[in-house]
């Protein structure tokens, strides 16, 4: 698509945004004022720095075991690995760094994620057929359960416990999409982590590769 439509093709994901916001909150920074140095591919990226007023606060996080243990990715990957990387990986990289443990956990699980989602969605539809069922509230409960059980096997392997309320506050895809549309439609210059053509941003990858990196977005 990007080969034929060029810069009109933009991919979005809420994982980098959620990760950046969690790190900012742990550091006591305003997520809306922090600039996140993020690089990689979709579902395969790392936070390499988090800047507040021009100062990189990530080294302070990596040096503090209590801070690292206070958010989801810190518990998922562990302080030792994060310090060796000098970065915070996207949660999906748990499948790479701990591949044997993750595969074993999913093989031993009572139900696959796909089967869980199928059954949950069927239950939602069944409740919606009942007269007087509040649609939005019912869907919100369904989605909350879906988010709370997301990557549960990975967290169990890591001993990371249940997802906390603060871990769920990424805003979702809709927030990223709306922020992008506002920036373009209103010509409001905004920094967003998006999937775009690489060009020369990451020298190890081809210019036409689609990378996930911070972008400045406006009407142009």
Automatic annotation (TrEMBL):
Superkingdom in the source lineage: Bacteria
Binding residues for Mn(2+): 13, 43
Active site per the UniProt annotation: 14 (proton donor), 92 (proton acceptor)
Cofactor: NAD(+)
TM segment ranges: none
Molecular function as annotated in GO: hydrolase activity, hydrolyzing O-glycosyl compounds; metal ion binding; oxidoreductase activity, acting on the CH-OH group of donors, NAD or NADP as acceptor
Span of domain Glycosyl hydrolase family 4 C-terminal: 38-220
Keywords on record: Cobalt, Glycosidase, Hydrolase, Iron, Manganese, Metal-binding, NAD, Nickel
Keyword Chaperone: no
GO biological process, one term: carbohydrate metabolic process
Pfam families per UniProt: Glyco_hydro_4C (PF11975)
Protein's name in the database: 6-phospho-beta-glucosidase
Organism of provenance: Streptomyces sp. SID7499
